[in-house]
Amino acid sequence: MAKTSKPVPPSNGSVSRPPTAFEYGYDKSFRFLTFFAGLLIVVLLAYIFWKIGGQAAPAMRQYGLSFLTTVEWNPNTNEFGILAEIWGTLYSSFLALIFGGGLGIAVAIFLTQGFLNARLAWVFRLIVEMLAAIPSVVFGLWGIYVLIPAIRPMASWLHDTLPFIPFFSTNLAGPGMFPAMIVLSIMILPTVAAISQDAFKAIPMKIQEAAYGMGTTKWEAIRKVIIPTASGGIFASLVLGFGRALGETMALAMLIGNSQQVSLSLFSPATTLASLLASTFPEAGANQIGPLMYAAVALLVITMAVNIIGTIIMSYTSRQTVT
C-alpha cells in the first residue's frame, strides 16, 4: 500500500492563514468608513430637504396643492403656479429620453458588438465621451445660432401641411420645445451610451458564442440574447439619463422659450422648473422667494421619485432575469 503523506502546515504566505491583527483592524476601519460615507449622504440629503423645505414652508401653507395645478406666475398679483413648469420638465425630459436614450443604446451596440475594429471603436468612444465635457451654455449657444435656423424651414412646412396634428399646431418662430429636446437628447447621450457599453461588455463571451452556435444571425443574437441579458444595465442608463435631463438648466433656459403654457406642440415655447429657478432667482422679489423654494422642492421630489421608481423597477427586472 502506498504511504499517505502527512499534511503540510500552511506557510506564512498561504491564503489559508488567519488574518493578522493589522488586517483585521484595516478591514474593520474600511467597513466603518464606508458606513460613515453612506450615512453622510443620507444626512446631507436630509439637510438639503430641511433647508429648502424650511424656506418653502410659508409658500406651501399659503398656496397648498393649487400651486402645483395652476399655470399663472404673476409677482404683481401674488399669483403663483408651476403646472406649466412641471409639464415642460417632464415633457422635454421624456422626449429627450426617447431620442437620446435610443441613440445612446444604438451607439453602445455599434461600439461593442464588432461593427468596428478596436482602434476605430476607441476613437468613436472618445468622441462620444467628449460630448459630456461640453458646457451646457455652449450647447445653448449652438442651439440658438445653428439649430433653430436649421430646423425652422422644416417646422414651418410641418405646421403648414399638418396643422391639425397637435404636435405641429404651432409654428416655430424662435426658441421652443423641439430645439430644447434635441439639445437635451445630445446631452444625455454620453451617459446612456457609456453605461450601456459597460452592460454589454459585462456579458460573458460564452453567452454570445452559444447564441451564434445555435445558428442565429448577428442581429438576432443582439436582439434576442444580448439586449435582454444587458437589460438591467440599459435600464439603469436610461434612469440616469432621465434624471440628468430633469435637472438640466442653462441649455433649456436658453432654448425652450420660457413661456407659461401647457402644450403638446413640439414647436411652441415652454418652460421648466430648472429654467424658472435660473431665470427668476437673480431678480426675485421678497414675495417670490417662497414660491421659488416651493418649486425647488417640487423639482427635488420629482427627481428623487424618478430615481427611486427606476431603482425599484431595475431590481425587479434583475430578479426576473436571474430566475
UniProtKB/TrEMBL annotation:
Chief place of localization: membrane
Subcellular location: Cell inner membrane; Cell membrane
Entry function: Part of the binding-protein-dependent transport system for phosphate; probably responsible for the translocation of the substrate across the membrane.
Pfam assignment, any one: BPD_transp_1
Keywords, alphabetical: Cell inner membrane, Cell membrane, Membrane, Phosphate transport, Transmembrane, Transmembrane helix, Transport
Residue ranges of domain ABC transmembrane type-1 in the record: 86-310
Membrane-spanning residues: 32-50, 90-111, 123-148, 177-200, 221-242, 293-316
Similarity section: Belongs to the binding-protein-dependent transport system permease family. CysTW subfamily.
Membrane topology value: Multi-pass membrane protein
GO molecular function, one term: phosphate transmembrane transporter activity
Entry-linked CDD domains: TM_PBP2 (cd06261)
Entry protein name: Phosphate transport system permease protein
Recorded GO CC terms: plasma membrane
InterPro entries found in the cross-reference section: MetI-like (IPR000515), MetI-like_sf (IPR035906), Phosphate_PstC (IPR011864), Phosphate_Transport_Permease (IPR051124)
Top-rank taxon, per record: Bacteria
Upper lineage: Bacteria, Pseudomonadati, Pseudomonadota, Alphaproteobacteria, Hyphomicrobiales
